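hey m, so remember when u said the tokens were messed up on ur end? i reran from scratch. heres the input so u can diff it against urs
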Amino acid sequence: MNDRDADEAPDAVPELVQRTKGVDSARRALQILLQFTESRPELTIDNVLEAHGISVPSAYRYLSLLREMNLIEERGKGTFVLTPRVLRLARSAEVSLDYRTTAQPILDRMREETGETALYIRRVNDAAVCLAIAESDHQISISFQPGHLMPLHLGAAPKVLLAEYSDAKREQYFDWLRPPMSKADRSKWDADLDSIRATGYAQSTAEVDAGVWAAAAGVRSYGALVGALTVVAPAFRLSEADRQKIGAVVRAGAAEFEAALGQ
């Protein structure tokens, strides 16, 4: 493979840093790899040609390099998918991404504005974990504490994370639950999660801890969900106006978090 294709089409890489010279072919191969997304798990040769404006031989040369590195495989003639080797990269990234330092001052402000406890929750495999917390002066007993793994289908913040799952992965998650859910309950959860996925916002009452109400909003970085911010409070002392105010604070906190991550 050589660099002769560098001028065949404009590069799609954002100018976030100074471009490295002499690696146009490597850049193109990585751009093709980054075309794979959760919503587009397969790429055809036509997808590559359309995105990069290169010749068919050039496209196959880049794809051959990715196959040689065992990063993609050909599922059907001219259709390519990622290999399980990519999961190692995803797990490594998941472990290394730690936004607690960024989240903490935002959580502190959310606590001051609401008078209630604020948390940063993210997904680890098929569980939710609290990474940072700003506790209110009011005594409240909650199960979400830093480092504790919790189910993904209970509570406002976990449901924001679960709603991001594809339909197939969500189905698999519910199949693993014990005791199993009834069909009626699963239909209710699916409808709830579809709504949450559309809005990026969720509320819950007594789903994790008795008498506790929560509101949560998702936080994204470059389109990927990296967690959720949530405020929890005893339900008995909240009026509807209080809940609306907390919801607004949660959404604003999530927007501020995203801005801090460079969105």
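this time it looks ok to me. Confidence is low (pLDDT under 50) at residues 1-17. if urs says something different then somethings off w ur setup not the seq
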